[in-house]
């Protein structure tokens, strides 16, 4: 059984092809790089509309398969930007209708966890999923995936991107902040963990103010990273202790950061837990994770009908 998956919750369009054994046959993606400012939902939708067909062709070529070989269509149902989600859902439905195959809408965040489990062989991890749009600590507990903690306002990637744009470093901010942080030393910034949840907006404002007040950019970048990552590691550690699991997994675009990886691994080691991270290609948003989620949902008897606007129906 072959599944084609379409990702498009935010600014990256992705198309992947995966078989029922978990062989990743193709994964093609194309991010929208904004000229200035952040991601506009309408522009993200237009980007998907322009890129889904070319990426589908590229994915078919990579896999050596033809469209008629696809047995099923999966698409990212959310969470994400409304106009972007609608564009992807429309493309997926049109494809499923023309091929006369089942279709399933999948949860983007769980897609990250499942492609992580597939590519790292982690069995049952506590996952820290950190990207431009999401910051969540997720684990499987009492028969379902649960969010143990998450951001109450902006995502960590968004925090780094907004900081970078505000101080004139450009987009995306994460890699730029990481590079500058290497030469910095610590200045105090607000640390906000509320219960199991996190808040980054106060930290972002304080970091911008420090820079505007004359602090060295290296020091602000270093302190921003140390503070934000300590908050993320604290919540992950508490979820690990609570769930008594033996594995920690890091995924999402911010997983590219070597300092975050290092801090999370130290915490995992202290708890005698294994540390896992998928290859970078499958860490950020990608179509293969959507196709693989489609396979898993089909395997467990969950597929949506063509008339389905979001609610997953049990397949009879
Ligand atoms: O998962 P992803 O590719 O897509 C979206 O969330 O849309 O994540 C993108 C995010 C951006 O916020 C970017 O700044 C961040 O990942 N990022 C990093 C690094 N490389 C990318 N953040 C910290 N350090 C990095 N080296």
UniProtKB/TrEMBL annotation:
<keyword id="KW-0819">tRNA processing</keyword>
<dbReference type="GO" id="GO:0000408">
    <property type="term" value="C:EKC/KEOPS complex"/>
</dbReference>
<dbReference type="GO" id="GO:0004674">
    <property type="term" value="F:protein serine/threonine kinase activity"/>
</dbReference>
<feature type="binding site">
    <location>
        <position position="108"/>
    </location>
    <ligand>
        <name>Fe cation</name>
    </ligand>
</feature>
<feature type="binding site">
    <location>
        <position position="174"/>
    </location>
    <ligand>
        <name>L-threonylcarbamoyladenylate</name>
    </ligand>
</feature>
<dbReference type="GO" id="GO:0008270">
    <property type="term" value="F:zinc ion binding"/>
</dbReference>
<feature type="binding site">
    <location>
        <position position="285"/>
    </location>
    <ligand>
        <name>Fe cation</name>
    </ligand>
</feature>
<dbReference type="GO" id="GO:0004712">
    <property type="term" value="F:protein serine/threonine/tyrosine kinase activity"/>
</dbReference>
<feature type="binding site">
    <location>
        <position position="129"/>
    </location>
    <ligand>
        <name>Fe cation</name>
    </ligand>
</feature>
<dbReference type="GO" id="GO:0005524">
    <property type="term" value="F:ATP binding"/>
</dbReference>
<protein>
    <recommendedName>
        <fullName>Probable bifunctional tRNA threonylcarbamoyladenosine biosynthesis protein</fullName>
        <ecNumber>2.3.1.234</ecNumber>
        <ecNumber>2.7.11.1</ecNumber>
    </recommendedName>
</protein>
<comment type="similarity">
    <text>In the N-terminal section; belongs to the KAE1 / TsaD family.</text>
</comment>
<dbReference type="GO" id="GO:0061711">
    <property type="term" value="F:tRNA N(6)-L-threonylcarbamoyladenine synthase activity"/>
</dbReference>
<keyword id="KW-0547">Nucleotide-binding</keyword>
<dbReference type="GO" id="GO:0005737">
    <property type="term" value="C:cytoplasm"/>
</dbReference>
<keyword id="KW-0418">Kinase</keyword>
<feature type="binding site">
    <location>
        <position position="161"/>
    </location>
    <ligand>
        <name>L-threonylcarbamoyladenylate</name>
    </ligand>
</feature>
<keyword id="KW-0808">Transferase</keyword>
<keyword id="KW-0511">Multifunctional enzyme</keyword>
<feature type="binding site">
    <location>
        <position position="112"/>
    </location>
    <ligand>
        <name>Fe cation</name>
    </ligand>
</feature>
<keyword id="KW-0012">Acyltransferase</keyword>
<dbReference type="GO" id="GO:0106310">
    <property type="term" value="F:protein serine kinase activity"/>
</dbReference>
<feature type="binding site">
    <location>
        <position position="178"/>
    </location>
    <ligand>
        <name>L-threonylcarbamoyladenylate</name>
    </ligand>
</feature>
<keyword id="KW-0067">ATP-binding</keyword>
<comment type="subunit">
    <text>Component of the KEOPS complex that consists of Kae1, Bud32, Cgi121 and Pcc1; the whole complex dimerizes.</text>
</comment>
<keyword id="KW-0723">Serine/threonine-protein kinase</keyword>
<feature type="binding site">
    <location>
        <begin position="129"/>
        <end position="133"/>
    </location>
    <ligand>
        <name>L-threonylcarbamoyladenylate</name>
    </ligand>
</feature>
<keyword id="KW-0479">Metal-binding</keyword>
<comment type="similarity">
    <text>Belongs to the protein kinase superfamily. BUD32 family.</text>
</comment>
<feature type="region of interest" description="Kae1">
    <location>
        <begin position="1"/>
        <end position="316"/>
    </location>
</feature>
<keyword id="KW-0963">Cytoplasm</keyword>
<dbReference type="GO" id="GO:0005506">
    <property type="term" value="F:iron ion binding"/>
</dbReference>
<keyword id="KW-0408">Iron</keyword>
<feature type="binding site">
    <location>
        <position position="257"/>
    </location>
    <ligand>
        <name>L-threonylcarbamoyladenylate</name>
    </ligand>
</feature>
<dbReference type="GO" id="GO:0004222">
    <property type="term" value="F:metalloendopeptidase activity"/>
</dbReference>
<dbReference type="GO" id="GO:0002949">
    <property type="term" value="P:tRNA threonylcarbamoyladenosine modification"/>
</dbReference>
<comment type="function">
    <text>Required for the formation of a threonylcarbamoyl group on adenosine at position 37 (t(6)A37) in tRNAs that read codons beginning with adenine. Is a component of the KEOPS complex that is probably involved in the transfer of the threonylcarbamoyl moiety of threonylcarbamoyl-AMP (TC-AMP) to the N6 group of A37. The Kae1 domain likely plays a direct catalytic role in this reaction. The Bud32 domain probably displays kinase activity that regulates Kae1 function.</text>
</comment>
